[in-house]
Amino acid sequence: MTTTTAPAPAAENRTPSPARKQAGRKALLHWIAVHSLGVAAALFFVLPFVFVFLTSLMSDQQALTRDLTPNSWHWDNYVKVFQVEGFLTWWRNSLLYAGLGTVLVVVSSIPVAYALAKFRFRGRHLSLLLVISMMMLPPQVIIIPMYLFWAKQLDLSGTLWPLIIPMAFGDAFAIFLLRQFLLTIPNEYVEAARIDGCGEFRTLIRIVLPMAKPGVAAVALFQFFYSWNDYFGPQIYASENPGAWTLSYGLESFKGAHHTDWNLTMAATVLVMAPVILVFFFAQKAFVEGVTLTGVKG
Amino acid sequence: MSTDTLPAKAAAAPAAASPGGRNTLRSKRRRNALRTLAFMSPWLIGFGFFFAYPLVSTLYFSFMRYDGLNPPTWRGVENWTYVFSDLPKFWPAMQNTLWLAVVMVSCRVVFGLGIGMLITKIKTGAGIFRTLFYLPYLAPPVAATLAFVFLLNPGTGPVNSLLEAVGIPAPSWFNDADWAKPALTVLAVWGVGDLMVIFMAALLDVPKEQYEAAELDGVSAWQRFRYVTLPNISPIVLFAVVTGIIGAMQYYTQPIVAAKVASGVMGGSGATFQPGYPDDSTLTLPQLVYSLGFSQFNYGAACVVALVLFAFSMAFTALLMRRRGGLIGSGD
């Protein structure tokens, strides 16, 4: 709030022509109004993070009081979280699910997206409509047969494989997002490569993919975050075996195992949020581009 | 809808002249078809196995009595009549889902548009503001929900401390049946960063000349919004509303985690936990599918609810496709 009042003295400068002065004052008031609103909104978005972080540094007792800031800073809470049984396993599982899943989705979705964007074939529009339908389908609609298949037929419940294996067969959202991106690459490049006798697969690998790097990055990020954040999947397939829990799923039980320890729970919460936010800072552009591409451009 | 690939078309002209051309054309077509098939194959398998088969299977199980242990037996429409007339939790779940689709989605769209407009007006430190507004969207849902249950905790949460400090009577949020859904709405509005980005891009695309013309006519700020901004961004507003509703049909993680943590009923398996706390006020259709199927092992009834969910989301997907065909892009 101090930032908004800082430029105010500038208005005191008595400068020429009353009309211009009035316009200048109007602009200044507008600046102040907009930035005050901005600061108020920023507080709404940032304060939850701040309170979570501050609570994560409190002592066990203080976390149960109404205090907003810690009396003494318990950085060792973060060490304690890692000592909680299972926490490291959940990290490993989350990284496996998110990492392996992302690689599989990217590799399997690229050729499909390329075909939908650059080939003309009978049923192309229908295929695209079906991809979009699949993208919009709530996972709960098909969960009963899927669960019965993976758990009863293949006996894979208690593992993350029922979540990872399907990713080798393309993901509807990744296909859609990549296709939207590939549409923005001019057909002339593809046609030129074809005329030069370049095979379709080589055209994709050598010509199109290097140009599509930002799109691939956006898809990889979205997929990584999806798996990292997924709660429903691990709940269905891994709930019976704590050794297969992911961070997102384990985090909720964390509060249960450590009933009153809001400080440790908040420290664990910070640790689950941290990788996502770190990755975002390194890949901000790709991420924002991905959001825009699915929402606005055609 | 052209059936040929681009090179095949080029070959079509000489084909008529030379007798051998027809064969070349046909083999070229076959080769192209095989190539398309090869490129599409991961998804063709995925579509069949993870969409078509389970969907048909869900329909099949909706007519069966099945508990996962005994072999399924034919039950006709009994599951359907059970869900619609005898299952006490069905209508609360339906009402909650509709409430969320209407209130949560409209709050998110209005707030997202407001923040989107604000960010286009901010001149100093726009990048920092945009990042701060966007960050909550990235917070993992379980972590964000846990944080909000703590922040809105009636006893020790900082929000109620602040509210009471300024003399506003503080509600019990996730522990009060009347306030649990508004609390979830606050959480959803906090994560409005995706809509902000979409609206921001749309607002920057509004032609400047239209604002200049409006300025010459001396219109008020509201009129400028109503007659220039809104008509230009209405397709994006519609997109945000429809995708928001489709999202509401899948709304699962936040309510179930909030209910579990706020009620204090824990444990990983979820078998003992009945979602919807307090008093079914946060029970949604996806959670009902889960609890019917995986707590009560009534797969038949769970499949009926799943199909209701399917009907809703496909109806809105169809609406989205109809009204925003441009979203897909022709690809030509």
Automatic annotation (TrEMBL), chain A:
Membrane topology: Multi-pass membrane protein
Record GO biological process: transmembrane transport
Annotated GO CC locations: plasma membrane
Span of domain ABC transmembrane type-1: 91-283
Keyword terms, alphabetized: Cell membrane, Membrane, Sugar transport, Transmembrane, Transmembrane helix, Transport
InterPro entries reported in the protein's UniProt record: MetI-like, MetI-like_sf
Cellular location(s): Cell membrane
Keyword presence, Transmembrane: yes
Gene3D superfamilies per record: MetI-like
Domain of life of the source: Bacteria
Chief subcellular location: membrane
Stretches that traverse the bilayer: 28-54, 95-116, 128-148, 160-182, 203-226, 262-283
Family: Belongs to the binding-protein-dependent transport system permease family.
Protein name: Putative sugar transport inner membrane protein
Species of origin: Streptomyces venezuelae (strain ATCC 10712 / CBS 650.69 / DSM 40230 / JCM 4526 / NBRC 13096 / PD 04745)
UniProtKB/TrEMBL annotation, chain B:
Residues annotated as transmembrane: 36-56, 98-120, 132-152, 183-206, 227-252, 299-320
Keyword terms, alphabetized: Cell membrane, Membrane, Sugar transport, Transmembrane, Transmembrane helix, Transport
Compositional bias per record (Low complexity), positions renumbered to this chain: 7-17
Pfam family, one: BPD_transp_1
Subcellular location: Cell membrane
Location, primary (coarse class): membrane
Region (Disordered): 1-24
One cellular-component annotation, GO: plasma membrane
InterPro entries associated with the record: ABC_transporter_permease, MetI-like, MetI-like_sf
GO biological process, one term: transmembrane transport
Membrane topology: Multi-pass membrane protein
Domain ABC transmembrane type-1: 94-320
Superkingdom assignment: Bacteria
PANTHER family with a match to the protein in the record: ABC TRANSPORTER PERMEASE PROTEIN, ABC TRANSPORTER PERMEASE PROTEIN YESP-RELATED
Assigned protein family: Belongs to the binding-protein-dependent transport system permease family.
Name of the protein described by the UniProt record: Putative sugar transport system permease protein
Species of the source: Streptomyces venezuelae (strain ATCC 10712 / CBS 650.69 / DSM 40230 / JCM 4526 / NBRC 13096 / PD 04745)
